[in-house]
């Protein structure tokens, strides 16, 4: 685990989110310690994206609170980059009218944006596409560009929203290795269980907004409540 004093500890305390009569998150608490890779899993509609949206300030909790490094924190989307928090989107949300390089530079925080963007693209194995336009590229390449856009600012907390969606086994293996070697705090929402189990230190399981389990991959795999939630969802 990293001891970098710049890393941030993020914590959610008893977060509840209601959309009208629907409770999307029901008293969810989570501590994301610096350098840890924390997964959030659960069947469709469990509240995973809502939890990400609360951390990013897109959704205001109905009750509960957040802290960053122990201090009360009210997230705002336009402050995230400055705080060192980067998020990938479920899709590949890139600007079609901008080159790949310009898209990645949007995520940069420093003066040397171009060289940092090229380095991030290189790290993700897609530097050769820097001058291309994203719309013309295959989906797996665009997912890598989305990762480069998040990594370019050297985030302290990297939030990955279904990064394996639409990728094949080789791409997922590559992604797993990249996540492990980032050395940063990672919050991962993902349906691909092999990826989650292989990269995460800790996993939170949600079901209909309720936290039903939290623990190591081995503890989560052996938890009957988790199996039940997934079997129920498949039935
Ligand atoms: N803005 C919103 N207004 C109303 N209901 C919403 C809103 N956002 C999410 N929901 C509902 O909240 C619940 C949780 O949704 P959420 O997208 O967080 O689940 P999820 O676990 O990310 O699902 P998936 O795995 O399908 O992406 C769902 O029932 C969803 O329909």
UniProtKB/TrEMBL annotation:
Record's signal peptide: none
Keyword terms: ATP-binding, Nucleotide-binding, Transport
Gene3D superfamilies: P-loop containing nucleotide triphosphate hydrolases
Pfam families: ABC_tran, BCA_ABC_TP_C
InterPro entries in UniProt: AAA+_ATPase, ABC_AA/LPS_Transport, ABC_transporter-like_ATP-bd, BCA_ABC_TP_C, P-loop_NTPase
Domain ABC transporter residues, every copy: 10-233
Descriptive protein name: ABC transporter ATP-binding protein
Organism phylogeny: Bacteria, Bacillati, Actinomycetota, Actinomycetes, Micromonosporales
């Amino acid at each position: 685990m990293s001891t970098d004093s710049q890393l941030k500890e993020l914590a959610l305390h008893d977060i509840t989110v209601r959309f009208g009569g629907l409770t999307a998150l029901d008293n969810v608490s989570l501590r994301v310690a610096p350098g840890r890779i924390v997964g959030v899993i659960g069947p469709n509609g469990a509240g995973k994206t809502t939890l990400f949206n609360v951390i990013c300030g897109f959704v205001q909790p109905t009750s509960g609170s957040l802290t960053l490094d122990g201090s009360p924190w009210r997230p705002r989307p336009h402050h995230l980059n400055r705080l060192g928090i980067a998020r990938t989107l479920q899709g590949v949300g890139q600007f079609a009218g901008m080159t790949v390089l310009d898209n990645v530079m949007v995520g940069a925080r420093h003066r040397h944006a171009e060289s940092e963007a090229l380095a991030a693209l290189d790290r993700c194995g897609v530097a050769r596409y820097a001058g291309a336009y994203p719309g013309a590229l295959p989906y797996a390449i665009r997912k890598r560009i989305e990762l480069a856009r998040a990594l370019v600012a050297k985030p302290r907390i990297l939030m990955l929203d279904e990064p394996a969606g639409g990728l094949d086994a080789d791409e997922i293996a590559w992604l797993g290795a990249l996540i492990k070697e980032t050395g940063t705090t990672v919050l991962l929402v993902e349906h691909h269980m092999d990826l989650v189990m292989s990269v995460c230190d800790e996993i939170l399981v949600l079901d209909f907004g309720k936290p039903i389990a939290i623990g190591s991959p081995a503890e989560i795999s052996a938890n009957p409540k988790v199996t039940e939630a997934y079997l129920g969802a498949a039935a």
